[in-house]
Amino acid sequence: MVDGIMDSTIVQGFIQAIELIVTGNPEVVEITIRSLYISLSATLIAGLIALPLGALIYFKEFRGKQALVNILQTLFAMPTVIIGLFVFLMLSRSGPFGFLDLLFTPGGMVIAQTILIIPLIMGLTVSALSSIDREMRYTIISLGASSLQSIVTVIKESRFAIMSVILLGFGRAISEVGTVMIVGGNIRGFTRVLTTAIALNTSMGNFPFSIALGIILLTVALGVNIVLSVVQRR
Amino acid sequence: MIIEAHDITKEYGDQRVLDGVSLAVEEGEVLGIIGPSGSGKSTFLRILDLIEAPTSGELSLFGEDVLSMQNRWLEIRRRMGMLFQKPIVFNASVYDNVAMGMRYRSENRAEIDRRVQETLEAVGLSRYIKSSARDLSGGEQQRVALSRVIVTEPEILFLDEPTANLDPASTATIEEMVLRLNRERGTTIVVNTHDMLQGQRLSQRVGVMIAGDIMQVGKPKEVFNNPANLQIARFVGVDNILSGRVASAEPGGLTVIEVQGNRLEVAEPPPDGKGRAVKVVFRGEDVTIGVGETATTSARNVFSGSITGIESTAPFVGVTVDCGFPVTALVTARSADSMDLEAGKEVWVSFKASALHLIAEEQDGGDER
């Protein structure tokens, strides 16, 4: 009996979810757009900061380079709620950046996700550039490239690997729930995004809505993966 | 001298890769550096091409002392070019690959266009000009890499084992291009190779690098026939290395060496050295082998013995004969057949006093095997 109820709940949920998506339910659309907007912004900003820093780490020889790369790799797995807590404390009224009034705003969420994925993009950029082997670097230098020209050539040569890095960063940003829940506060119509909406609606028993958003989130993730595999085949 | 390296050393951590290398290269010369892998040849070329700085030493390129002015390295490096062992192409079209060096030098587009097409035609790749360089075979990629270097019209060209992994046809194309470059443009060429025949084919002089030092430089024939020490002798494939003692020596005449109770006559004075112990070295090609009556020959050294081993090293056969001391002769497979050479057969061997070369015993140090 219980199985029957569950079955019908899931089936019903799916049918209603498809309806919500197909009819373009305003709240579903609004949450989706906000999610994309926040995570794309975070990816863009993180990319602008982390790619050059990653390249710098790769090109410069310095003491503790390997240790730094190890730390970055550890941060890949940093729990999102800890980043959320950290950014919350920074942005809260009494925190050092409280004056910016960014807590519980989309701007604050962009900052939180940016911080979350910077180590990932930096660390993976170093790995992506490391796929350029030594002989190729020698070739570039011996062809008469200036320092700037060799950096540009190396980055151009690893362009597909770097695109994969950016896509992975975006994937982590859009699918995480910890930082946006803590820093954004899941305010309806203002800071509610796909992941936080799924969490809330599920706890309220509003399964069709959760399933609809889940399908969209999965579709985005799937899209990222398809682009990623196309890029990696190049 | 277009290149003058003096006492160059290079250390990576506590590993010493180059140990006081000195070498001078004349303008317009083709110089081969031969030596086993891991002897430091590649590192040395990278230092000459200003890709890496040496740990210590002096280096002059185009008559300028370059180590003291790193700020001008780019400018000097742009007058040189280097081709590496592994074919390296960038993920771009063949055209863009070949144009790279010229673009770095900000040459104008029409000139790039003209020279890239001309060069690709010369290496037989013009039909691939728009193809992705990654889709080409290894030999074709190496030709792209060579084109990429020569369009920049270097005054000095460094080649680091340029044909090590290539098919014979690509190897021939590359060798031909290199020699043409030297002949027509007077490009100075320094080529690393572990292939002694290639070293001989390409170079006017060869240097032998062993264990981080260039131990001998000279005409290929000189190095192959008169190796300066045992390590070189072994590397250049001298088949006979015998231990002996100087028995007598006439000034300006023959030296007699006693080898296990036999007397060998050598047409050179004993080497400088403290002891009378020497090594007698000579190549298997210089040994004549025969059956039956000992032929009347002008060769000073004639011995008889029985064959102890026959080893085929096509197109030759190495025949080892025990004459109280082992002697290896290289003969053609055909003459080995016609003489019915086989283990146990009694034969005689002869070799001229002038084919023998003496090396002082202590030069080899602890490297006795």
**Level-1 CATH class name of the largest domain in chain B:** Alpha Beta
Termini distance of chain B? 39 Å
* Strand arrangement, major sheet of chain B: 6-7-8-3-9-10
Strand content of chain B: 25-35%
> What fraction of the residues of chain A are assigned to beta strands by DSSP?
under 5%
CATH superfamily of the largest domain in chain B: P-loop containing nucleotide triphosphate hydrolases
Number of strands of chain A: 0
**Fraction of residues in H or I helices of chain B:** 25-40%
What's the CATH H-level homologous superfamily of chain A?
MetI-like
Task: Write down the oligomeric state.
Answer: heterodimer
Number of helices of chain B: 10
Tell me the overall shape of chain A.
Answer: globular
The gyration radius over C-alpha positions of chain B equals 25 Å
Number of strands of chain B: 20
N-end to C-end Cα span of chain A:
52 Å
Overall CATH architecture of the largest domain in chain B? 3-Layer(aba) Sandwich
Number of helices of chain A: 11
Q: Would you list the SSEs of chain A in sequence order as H and E?
A: HHHHHHHHHHH
Please render the helix and strand layout as text:
The complex is a heterodimer of chains A (about 230) and B (about 375).
Chain A: H1 2-22, H2 26-59, H3 65-75, H4 80-91, H5 106-130, H6 134-142, H7 147-157, H8 159-175, H9 178-184, H10 194-203, H11 207-233
Chain B: E1 3-12, E2 15-25, E3 30-34, H1 41-48, E4 56-61, E5 64-65, H2 73-77, E6 80-83, H3 94-104, H4 109-122, H5 138-150, E7 156-160, H6 168-185, E8 188-193, H7 196-202, E9 205-210, E10 213-218, H8 220-225, H9 230-235, E11 240-249, E12 255-259, E13 262-266, E14 277-282, E15 288-290, E16 301-313, E17 316-322, E18 326-332, H10 333-338, E19 346-351, E20 357-360
Parallel strand pairs in B: 3-8, 3-9, 6-7, 7-8
Antiparallel strand pairs in B: 1-2, 1-4, 4-5, 9-10, 11-12, 11-14, 12-13, 14-20, 15-19, 16-17, 16-19, 17-18
